[in-house]
Known about the structure:
The structure holds two protein chains of two kinds. Chain A is α/β, with parallel strands linked by helices. Helix content of chain A is about 35%, strand content about 25%. The radius of gyration of chain A is 17 Å and the shape is globular. In chain A, a hairpin with a 2-residue loop joins strand 1 and strand 2 (about 15-25). Chain A has helices spanning about 40-50, 95-100, 110-115, 120-125, 135-150, 165-180, 190-195, 215-220, 220-230, and strands spanning about 1-10, 15-25, 30-35, 55-60, 65, 80, 150-155, 185, 200-205, 210-215. Chain A is built from nine helices and ten strands. The two termini of chain A are about 30 Å apart. In chain A, the strands form two sheets. Chain A has a six-stranded mixed β-sheet with strand order 6-7-8-3-9-10, with helices on both faces. Chain B has one domain (about 20-225). Chain B has helices at about 1-30, 40-55, 60-80, 90-115, 140-160, 165-175, 175-180, 185-210, 220-235, 240-260, 265-275; strands at about 130-135, 135-140. Chain B has a two-stranded antiparallel sheet. The N and C termini of chain B lie far apart (about 40 Å). The model of chain B has no long low-confidence stretch (mean pLDDT about 90).
Amino acid sequence: MLEIRGLQAFYGEAQALHGIDLTVREGEVVTLVGRNGAGKTTLLRSIIGLHPDVRGSIMLNGSELTTVPTHRRPGLGLGWVPDDRGIYASLNVEENLTLPTVTHPDSAWSLGQVYEAFPVLADRRRAAGTTLSGGEQQMLAVARVLRTGARLLLLDEPSEGLAPVIVQQIRDILLRVKEQGTTVLLVEQNVKFASTVADRHYVLAEGAVAADLDKQEFTDRQDELLTYLGM
Amino acid sequence: MNAFLLYTVQGLAAGSFYALAALGLAIIFGVLGVVNFAHGACYMLGAVVAAVLLDVTGLTFWPALVVVPVLLFLFGVVIERLFVSRLAELDPLYNFLLTFGLSLLLVDLIKRQYGVSGLPYTRPEVLSGQLSLGSFHLPTYQVFVFLFSLLVCAGVWLLMTRTRIGMIVRASTEKSDLTRALGVNVKAWVTPVFGFGIALAGLAGVLAAPFRAITADMGSSFIIILFAVVVIGGLGSIVGAVVAGFLVGLVEAYGQAYAPQLSQIVIFVLMALVILARPAGLFGREENA
């Protein structure tokens, strides 16, 4: 579904990604783990089209993404949840949900389904987006891309800074999304969270892929990884 | 008491021009990130075009309230397509300088064509004279200007808060990159938003035409006060622009009435006080400051 070959990204003179090769197959949940500054967020931003200076190839379902304008990429099936959650203060909860248009009606969640899965969003639908708690904002950010019917979700640390009970809820939603056949590329520092939802894992270091691990290898080497990530 | 009421109405009428124009400035700044220095010149253009249309074609005040903003909208669209859009990728300072140059150009072109002495404009019969409310007598035209601009501001507010267009404008004002990444073609909205902002300045100009001296320079002092208005209201804040517009109009009118020696500086004292208390303005968000 997603094929990245030789991807380089630059911030002015500095190079953030040094030739990433990575593949995500349809229906897979794949995580990107790595220390801060390893290039995980830059990689997601490059895929969605918000990193201006990239070289190399990003193929989505066989067509090249790098030349497609940012605002057209969701129409090709991408749904991005940014690391800061990207909730609008000047839009209420329901407006935050309905701002992106439904791109894939077959897999799109209706507002009713969203509110059923996240009752707290229904209760606060008229409240300004940023008056929600951190966990609620994360749910809103995830719900927003589910409503569009995106076929490939790009999630940037959805568990970061959240209470365990909320992390549990986010995991349940991810498992449900996976069951539905949606593909997920997930940036995750929380190794335990990553190991429970993902099929495969890429370890990123200094802007390059350091290891490509399947579920079993990841579990076997979990201690080594935790030490490596400094946790 | 009658005098105080009169100053209040005068202040609200003057504030109407500020509120309408500042609204346009705020919407343009929000979506384009451009501080339109030519906004005062567009206000002047609104008044001049109304006066010229009256003189040449006999187009009276009422139709001018619609025709002139439409013309200014088209003017804004052309300016955005020809110039502003070409600088959009660069530092916003480039567009600030562009609009500064544009305002100088417009002022001098109007001076060259129509001189500096001012164009005549007659207000419609029905808006002349005074409204009598018991023992109070208020100038009809100023009451009309206030009510009319309040209606327009309310309409723009409804457009911004109740429609999908408004939602997109608010979203791209707050987070332009994210809005694009969510699939909204922000660029497609830039040109009409710029035109709309210019049209609001033009509308303020038409309303000022029967009431102020119509000269090429009428926008020059106007733009300075307009900047004070957006700083007081909060740059990019729509509600802030309107509230601060009326507030500045009132402060200016009271200043002229009760402390004429200080009338030039009271607005800027108010601006300084607001900056001390709330650097982002009365309705601005801190992260926009």
